[in-house]
Amino acid sequence: MISLIAYALAPRLGARMATVTAWALTIGLAFLALYLAYCWAWDQGRDHERAKWESAAEMLEDADAAADAEALDVAHDTKGTVDAQNERARDAAAASDDPLRVGLDSLRGEGARQGNEAAR
Questions:
Q1: 10, 18 Cβ separation under 8 angstroms
Q2: What backbone phi and psi angles, to 5 degrees, belong to 115?
Q3: Cβ neighbours of residue 120 under 8 Å, at least 6 residues apart?
Q4: pLDDT for position 86
Q5: Is the pLDDT of residue 15 over 90?
Q6: Which residues make Cβ contacts (< 8 Å) with residue 9, sequence separation at least 6?
Q7: Quick one: average pLDDT of 11-27?
Q8: Which of 27, 39, 61, 103 is surrounded by the most beta carbons within 10 Å?
Q9: How far is it, in rounded angstroms, from Cα 120 to Cα 42?
Q10: Taking the C-alpha atoms of 61, 67, 72 and 73 in order, what is their torsion angle to the nearest 10 degrees?
Q11: Whether the model pTM is above 0.70
C-alpha cells in the first residue's frame, strides 16, 4: 500500500526513488504512531497525577477549614477576655478622681497577671 502511494507521489523519479520514498513514509508513519502512543500514555499519567493533586488539595482545604474554625474560637475567647478587662478598667476609671491613671493601672495589672504573653 505504501509503495503504491510512493509510486503515485513520485512517478517520474524511478523505482529506486519510489522505494526510498516508501521507506521514508513507513518510517514517518511509525514515528507518528510512536508519538501518538507517547502522548496518550503521558496524558493518562497526567490524569493520575491530577487526581492525586486534587485529593491533596481537598485534604489541605479541610485542614484549612479546621484551622480557621480553631482560630475563630481563640479569637472569640481572646476578644471576650479583652472586653472584660476593658470593662473593669472603665469601671475603675469611672469611680476615680484621676480616671486615666486608674484605668491604665488597671490594664497594667491585668497584663501583669497574664504574664504579658499573647494568647495561643
A1: yes
A2: 80, 15
A3: 74
A4: 84
A5: no
A6: 21
A7: 77
A8: 103
A9: 47
A10: 140
A11: no
pLDDT tens-digit map of 54-81: 999 999 999 999 999 999 999 998 898 8
CA pair distance 31, 91, nearest whole angstrom: 87
Check if the beta carbon of residue 70 is closer than 8 Å to that of residue 80.
Answer: no
Inter-residue long-range contacts of 49-52, CB under 8 Å, 24+ positions, other chains counted: none
Q: Which cell numbers hold the place of 91? A: 469601671
The CA R_g of the chain, rounded to the nearest whole Å, is 40
For residue 80, the surrounding DSSP H or E stretch is helix 15-94
How much is the pLDDT for 69?
A: 93
Number of neighbours of residue 13 by Cβ within 10 angstroms: 13
Question: Binning pLDDT at 50, 70 and 90, where does residue 5 land?
Answer: low
Question: What's the grid cell of residue 101?
Answer: 491613671
Say what the pLDDT of residue 98 is: 78
**Would you mind telling me the total number of residues written for the chain in this entry?**
120
Which residues, other chains included, contact 41 with Cβ-Cβ below 8 Å and sequence gap of 6+? none
